[in-house]
Design goal:
single chain, alpha+beta, 5-stranded antiparallel β-sheet, globular
Length: 709
């Protein structure tokens, strides 16, 4: 293949966009049709240019891929999950990865009680049954993802759904687990997820033209007639979600916008009774419901910005029946609860750390005092399993930090003791030897934003990394939807740390790290705080001696890609390089079009620029595509997915073309589009590792060694 000498030049075809008296002339509006052969040819040319420019990094890419491969146990078993199926028996469920294969297989084996956990080192467990060979299902597909895998309450069938395009549209199938054969039942074009309604029926969701889950359906196995439509959500701001209660008695339907929730229950034993709303829809009130026998536990924000805990009778039909058990605590976000017969498990976030607290239940189900679970590290994340067994004397915790690989811990409800069931293995590196957490340091830093707000950062680096400004640094940020970026572990990241890099997470406003107020301070009219926070974090890392500007890489994806684009426009001199993944960089154009996926539901996050002149003016001032300036930008790598339905490939393509035109950049701005991927990138693990190696190699090459000072 001939190597291109210059990057492709996208044709400029000015098209005016007029709203609220403002005219923006969009030279690349023609890229809106991602099926246009001219546009596809342009993307292919961009890929060829990127491959040519990065060809000298092939050796480094292979080295980084080898790093990830060497440190990863490629044949492994997940920690088995216990399940009891009346009339069939007790089982352990687990998945197995196999060296050389991209996708796992799902299995079960008989269990002799909860203490009979299979020993992975003992080989194949007795009576093991293959339930789903994902590698076999993915054969012949460039992309593959499971939307659900749900075993029926009686353990005799499984529902599973598959996506082979990356567009998050699934085909639902059902399997007889005794024979391994699929049943004739099949439903196309469903959303991810779904749940069993008893043993013979399954509830699933479908989407509207904007790809919003808006309809709930009831499918009875063996019935090839039309499925029953149970509910349609007409408000375009709301997405539906469906789940089953722990005892499989109830189907729980939730409609949620960015600011409001409504929940219904359906008796799976009497579907003709219809859906029952737990309370009326109230604008601005969000809540989540946990069913526990004859009562409901409700986590809500009615008068409690960081969410309170209430209980109500199972038959409740109004919020007036809610009784407060735990009032809201400012700055401590109550994320959710899981109710077992003996304990209520509470998930909380304080100071950017997600942790767990317990409230033991007496014989009548009433709650005792709150008991926080303690952990030794300064930064970490812990989650509790949502187990299937209500009557249990133990719970499982998933723990990790930036230096501690993922652990599965069994916590005894009787005496509080913990047993390590599994820790993600990190194999010996051929050069660096065994992984030792003590070789690395994690710490919290605080940057000061222009308005005086202190912004937390989570950092990790090798203990022998000089902190004299000579180290490279990757600064990651997101800052939207109240999503918190947790201080978690990464095998791929070790390749950066061992090459003398500091890795930092900027917990900017717009995320949820410091409670609901932190989120509110980075959305709508306050969105600019997200971007100025990120620039302040970059300046702080340089001022504190962790790195120099030329060695600092900014990284973010999706809404985090918007953050990267806006921060580059604000302060291109603050960064040595930037990686923007599936970036939401043409945010205003997209948010002006209510026919695009996600748009209407996004208005509560960004504002409604179509109808609100003030929202339009705000977004017009920060949307990266419209605000590229004639200044020297650092090298930028942009990665995208052709089948991405959350951020259309049009957005990064337009942004790259505009950056090149305005700044005159050539090899300093690169676009790489995965033609068989969606929003989450490639699905096979080996290709995902190669993608990570490509991005890491580019970052290392873009931030070469720099003398201290």
């Amino acid at each position: 293949m001939a190597i291109p000498l210059l990057p492709p030049v996208a044709p400029r075809r000015p098209e005016p966009r007029v709203h609220h008296g403002d005219t923006f002339v969009d030279p690349y509006a023609w890229m809106r049709d991602k099926s246009d052969p001219e546009f596809l040819a342009y993307l292919a040319a961009e890929n060829a240019w990127t491959e040519a420019v990065t060809a000298p990094l092939a050796g480094l890419r292979e080295e980084l891929f080898a790093d990830i491969s060497a440190r990863t146990r490629q044949t492994d078993l997940s920690v088995p999950e216990f399940a009891r199926h009346p009339g069939l028996g007790e089982f352990w469920y687990y998945s197995r990865t196999t060296e050389g294969l991209d996708y796992p297989s799902i299995h079960r084996c008989p269990a002799a009680g909860r203490d009979s956990l299979p020993d992975p080192s003992a080989g194949t467990p007795d009576g093991e049954l293959l339930l789903l060979d994902v590698q076999e299902l993915a054969a012949g597909s460039d992309f593959f993802a499971l939307g659900c895998f749900e075993v029926s309450p009686d353990g005799r069938r499984a529902a599973y759904s598959v996506d082979t395009e990356g567009d998050e549209r699934y085909r639902l199938r059902f399997r007889d687990l005794a024979t391994g054969e699929d049943l004739p039942d099949e439903v196309a074009e469903v959303a991810a997820g779904g749940c069993w309604a008893g043993d013979g029926a399954f509830c699933y969701l479908t989407v509207d033209d904007a790809w919003r889950p808006d309809r709930l359906w009831w499918h009875r196995l063996g019935d090839q007639g039309a499925d029953e439509l149970l509910h349609t959500e007409p408000d375009e701001r709301f997405w539906l979600g469906v789940d089953a209660s722990r005892d499989n008695r109830w189907v729980q339907l939730a409609a949620a916008s960015k600011t409001t929730t409504q929940v219904w229950l359906l008796d799976a034993t009497d579907p003709a009774s219809g859906l029952r709303a737990l309370t009326g829809r109230r604008e601005g009130v969000e809540y989540d419901v946990e069913i526990a026998g004859d009562r409901l536990f409700i986590v809500h924000n009615d008068g409690a910005p960081d969410f309170a805990l209430a209980e109500a009778p199972l038959a409740a039909t109004s919020h007036e029946q809610w009784r407060t058990l735990r009032p809201g605590e400012e700055g401590t976000r109550l994320l959710g609860v899981t109710a077992y017969d003996r304990v209520l498990v509470m998930s909380l976030r304080r100071e950017g750390i997600q942790t767990v607290a317990l409230r033991h239940r007496d014989a009548s189900g009433d709650l005792g005092a709150e008991v926080p679970l303690a952990f030794d590290e300064p930064l970490y994340q812990v989650d509790a399993d949502d187990g299937d067994e209500a009557d249990t004397d133990r719970i499982r915790l998933h723990y990790q930090s930036m230096v501690t690989p993922d652990q599965v811990l069994e916590h005894s409800l009787s005496d509080g003791s913990r047993r390590l069931l599994k820790q993600r293995p990190v194999l010996d590196h051929p050069v660096h030897g065994p992984y030792r957490p003590t070789d690395y340091v994690q710490r919290r830093e605080w940057a000061t934003a222009p308005d005086g707000t202190r912004v937390p950062l989570s950092l990790v680096y090798r203990a022998d990394t000089p902190l004299d400004g000579s180290a490279g640094c990757v600064l990651y940020g997101y800052g939207a939807y109240e999503i918190s970026v947790a201080p978690t572990f990464s095998i791929a990241r070790l390749s950066l740390l061992d090459r003398g890099y500091v890795y930092a997470i900027a917990h900017v406003r717009g995320g949820g790290e410091l409670g609901r107020a932190w989120y509110d301070a980075g959305k709508l009219a306050a969105k600019q705080n997200t971007f100025t926070d990120f620039v302040a974090c970059a300046r702080h890392l340089v001022a504190a001696g962790y790195t120099t500007t030329s060695r600092l890489v900014a990284e973010g994806g999706s809404a985090g890609g918007l953050l990267i684009g806006a921060a580059l426009n604000l302060a291109p001199d603050a960064f040595g390089a930037a990686h923007a993944a599936v970036p939401f960089v043409d945010a205003l154009t997209t948010t002006l079009d209510p026919d695009l996926p996600l748009t209407v539901s996004e208005w509560e996050e960004w504002g409604d620029p179509l109808h609100d002149p003030e929202a339009y003016a705000r977004m017009r001032a920060y949307s990266p595509y419209e605000n590229v300036r004639e200044l020297p930008y650092p090298p930028i790598l942009v990665t995208a997915g052709l089948n991405d339905t959350r951020v259309e490939v049009t957005e990064p393509a337009k942004w790259v073309a505009q950056l090149r035109h305005v700044t005159g950049a050539t090899d300093r701005v690169l676009l790489r589009t995965e033609v068989a991927a969606g929003h989450g990138g490639n699905s096979g693990r080996y290709q995902a590792w190669r993608d990570a190696a490509f991005e890491l190699a580019w970052m290392v090459s873009a931030t070469p060694p720099h003398p201290a000072g």
